[in-house]
Amino acid sequence: MSLQPNSHPRLKVLMVTRTSHITEIDMMCRLKKTGIEVEAITESDCPHITLLKDSGIPHESLDLKSRLDITGIKRLRQRIKMGGFHVVHGFSNRPISNLIWASYGLSHALIIYRGAIGHVRRWDPDCWLKWLNPRVDRISCVSHAVKKDLIKSGVRPNKLTTIYKGHDFSWYHGLPCIDLNSEFKIPENAFVVGCAANMRRVKGVDILLKSLLELPENVHALLLGEVRDPLIKTLAKKPELKYRVHFAGFRKDAPAILGSCNLAVAPSRGREGLTKSIIEPMAQGVPAVVTEAGGLPEMVEHGVSGYVVPIDDPTALAKAIGILSSDPELCRQFGERAKESMQEKFSIDQTVSNTMQMYVDVCHEKGIGS
């Protein structure tokens, strides 16, 4: 069944999430504008509830206490039955687990979101309560890498759809240019490499710091997020790095800070679905260097908008950073192409269109609304 403009059936969709990123909330609001009847359930501390209500989306708060919240399951089931939804769409682990229990014996299409790679195993009972559960009709994968990983883990390919999490690029218009010298005491002539992550070992930030040891002293690293890998602080204390590694901690203005850097880096070892810490700076014209982990290569065109390097290879990472740090014109050209490629591949309009098509296809397969 092919979706044509203004010809899709009058679908009624319940979307269940926790606090949610603005990309998901914006998608809900835009789906509402297409004529789909959207209702939302979020946790009570979701910062975007007003936006949902202003968009005319009926909203209910539900604070699930665990992945098996009996009271929450009963409330979800009652809400689904009373609402007469064609589609129920769950985001993040806790809502997904409870939605599956709440959906048994009901006829709606159940769609769940998967944004990471790994930890899906056929012998793990917990995975049969989510990703491998037969009640799930479709899994929306944030990247092709996530889809491939789920197929390898035993999920049937016809249950999987890749939909990039799109951004509204007007979000980045007019963001302030952060003075990195006054804000973080970074020398004015420094080439600043920005990296935003919850810095566990899998994020590979230690590889970035090791690469700095092979780069000129004017190359500095600006790290945003919580440091959980103790090796990072140990490396940062080295005499060669002591004044070249800058810790910003958690920052609400992370997109503006990353957009003020010369280069964005994701040195991950694995598990990456599609990281916004690369999309956000690239959308502002900052080139990127990423590893081959997960969906990262889907974001960067090697040798055009940045570089893709092997995992766990500080020398290869240093070489890529060194090329761009030593050639301002090439860095500028890569940045322009990065901005263009983000608009081509990761627009919110494409996400909305592909999500609508997924709803129509799944309902057609199940004979819902026909």
Walk me through the structure.
The protein has 14 helices and 13 strands. It has helices at residues 22-33, 49-54, 70-83, 93-103, 125-128, 144-152, 180-184, 205-212, 230-236, 254-259, 276-283, 314-325, 328-345, 348-366; strands spanning 12-16, 37-42, 59-61, 87-90, 109-114, 138-141, 160-162, 191-196, 219-224, 245-249, 263-266, 288-291, 306-309. The protein has a seven-stranded parallel β-sheet with strand order 3-2-1-4-5-6-7, sandwiched between helices. The longest helix is centred in the last third of the chain and has 19 residues, at 348-366. Residues 1-7 have low confidence and may be disordered.
Q: What brief labels describe this structure?
A:
single chain; 370 residues; Rossmann fold; 6-stranded parallel β-sheet; disordered N terminus
Instruction: Report how far the terminal alpha carbons are from each other.
Output: 11 Å
Task: Write the element-wise H/E pattern from the N-terminal end onward.
Answer: EHEHEHEHEHEHEHEHEHEHEHEEHHH
Number of strands: 13
Helix content: 25-40%
The fraction of residues assigned to DSSP E strands is 15-25%
Largest sheet: 7 strands, parallel
- What would the principal axes of the Cα set say about the shape? elongated
Using only CA atoms, what is the Rg?
22 Å
**Architecture of the largest domain, according to CATH?**
3-Layer(aba) Sandwich
How many H/I helical runs? Answer: 14
Name of the CATH first level of the largest domain: Alpha Beta
Count of domains: 2
Note poorly predicted spans.
Answer: 1-7
Strand order, main sheet: write it out. 3-2-1-4-5-6-7
Write the CATH fold name of the largest domain: Rossmann fold
Return the average pLDDT rounded to an integer. 94
Task: Kindly report the name of the CATH homologous superfamily of the largest domain.
Answer: Glycogen Phosphorylase B
Given the helix and strand composition, which structural class is it?
alpha/beta
